[in-house]
Specification:
Layout lengths: L1 E5 L3 H9 L11 E5 L7 H4 L3 E4 L1 H4 L11 E4 L5 H4 L7 E3 L6 H16 L2 H6 L15 E5 L3 H10 L5 E6 L10 E4 L3 H5 L4 E4 L13 H6 L4 E5 L8 H10 L2 E6 L19 E3 L9 H17 L14
Parallel strand pairs: 1-2, 1-3, 3-4, 4-5, 6-7, 6-9, 7-8, 9-10, 10-11, 11-12
Helix pairs in contact: 5-7
Organism: Congregibacter litoralis KT71
Protein name: Phosphoglycerate dehydrogenase
GO molecular function: NAD binding; oxidoreductase activity
Length: 311
Amino acid sequence: MHVAVVSSRVDALEEVFAGALKPHIPEGVTLRFYADSDALDDWGRGAEIALGAPDVLAPLLERMPHLRWVQSTWAGVTPFFDVPRRDYQLTGVKDIFGASMSEYCLGWVLALERSILSHAQAVSWQPRIDRGLSALRVGIAGVGSIGVAVARAFQPFVQEIRGLNSDGRAVAGCDRCFATSERLSFARDLDVLIMILPDTPATDGLVDANLLDALAPGALLINGGRANALDLDAALRAKASGQLKALVLDVFEREPLDDDHPLWKTPGVFITSHTAAPTDIASIARVFLDNLQRYQRGEPLQGVIDFDRGY
């Protein structure tokens, strides 16, 4: 069984598979590693399985006619939807980014609500009393596996946690959940809005001027999901008016953000260069090997992506 591994981080993946995880590669399975699309040879084009980053692997789908299963190394899989082909199973990686995203979101809320950044830059005695987190109403837009982990991380600290998903179904960690059709009720008087939304047509511009106006004055917005879901111009207007006191932005429609982009120097805007939940190569490899064993046994794979829903 041929597995083509295609990734710009191919050296790290090859090291993991050749090291601690080598004994777990099933007998009869051969992995070959490719650093980019230009390196793909006849062996790779004949592979039945592929593992890789969507931005590198998706353009190769039409050149790999024998593919039956593709394992993405990202939580988001948008590049695959730009390719018409649908005659294969696509799996994403779930349940491995929750801890790092929770650290990111909780860290920024603490930094801004407890004035940690201001104190770190102080050059004179500046005693001040912050409101802390206990009275905060926190909303998490996008309560899949990562959003649930974030909600659970905030539970001991805040007054209320609301979740937003497609149908309003209840999820662990949230006091209340709302459907996207109820997004303004979800947002009403929130002190903190955390976005962990996927990139789908249904989420385009979901967080717009109307939703931002529904937040509590001086709210904090954190976007650790996908850039398409946020109307950035509306968010910047809300920041300028004081409706938002700060924006923490990890993602943008076009990345990397140019060095001379004015956002780098906009007060109250914090840019984290798509590092909110970094990919752990060893965890990705373990997810893949678990699914590979399922594939060989003819069992359902974990993390299967629904092409119609987009996640």
